[in-house]
Amino acid sequence: MGIGFTMISGEVIPFLILAIGVDNMFIIKNAMERQTQYSKLEDKVAHGLREVGPNITTAAICEALAFLVGSFTKMPALQNFCVQAAFAIIFNYIFQLTTFVVVLIMDEERKKSGRLDVLFCIKTDDQLK
Q1: Ranges of H-type helices in 34-100
Q2: Is 65 helix (H, G, I), strand (E, B) or coil?
Q3: Is the Cβ–Cβ distance between 78 and 7 less than 8 Å?
Q4: Among candidate residues 37, 27, 98, the one with its CA nearest the CA of residue 59
Q5: What is the C-alpha separation between 111 and 120, in angstroms, rounded?
Q6: pLDDT in tens, 84-112
Q7: Is residue 1 a part of any domain in this protein?
Q8: What is the CA radius of gyration of the chain?
Q9: Is the C-alpha dihedral spanning 62, 64, 66, 68 positive or negative?
Q10: 91: how many CB neighbours lie within 10 A of its CB?
Q11: Is residue 23 part of a domain?
Q12: Nearest partner of 81 among 28, 8, 23, 26, judged by Cα
């Protein structure tokens, strides 16, 4: 794509994406936990994402557009940084609504089956829960 990579991009963008990503992950997790009226996990996920999905989508679009507007500057290093940050935000958004949600569902199923966190192949007794 002809976009150069600078040290600023390599050092700043990961922290930018981490800050945005962690916030959205907590929002998604809390929205799922608030869906206590549903017993099926699929319903909790669907209604939780229905609750917070529009807000996360709007925020991601605004953040990406803000960086894309910044890419119209005449400074090449800033142009590259803004384009890379915009693409990183879009990728992060897609990743959160696909992969993170799947991993969250897998973790909830692991908890239901009474398995440990790290050693998920080991099932716990009822006394340890």
Answers
A1: 41-70, 76-95
A2: helix
A3: no
A4: 27
A5: 9
A6: 999 999 999 999 999 999 999 999 888 88
A7: no
A8: 19
A9: negative
A10: 12
A11: yes
A12: 8
Q: Which tens digit of pLDDT belongs to each residue from 34-58?
A: 998 988 988 999 999 999 999 999 9
pTM of the model: 0.81
Four-CA torsion 34, 38, 44, 48, nearest 10 degrees: -50
Distance from C-alpha of 33 to C-alpha of 41, rounded to nearest angstrom: 10
Main-chain dihedrals φ then ψ at residue 99, nearest 5 degrees: -65, -45
User: CA torsion sign, 65 to 66 to 67 to 69?
Assistant: positive
Measured torsion, CA atoms of residues 87, 91, 93, 96, in degrees rounded to the nearest 10: -160
- Number of domains observed in the structure of the chain: 1
Percent of residues in the chain assigned helix, strand, coil, to nearest 5? 75, 0, 25
Which residues form the domain of 106? 7-128
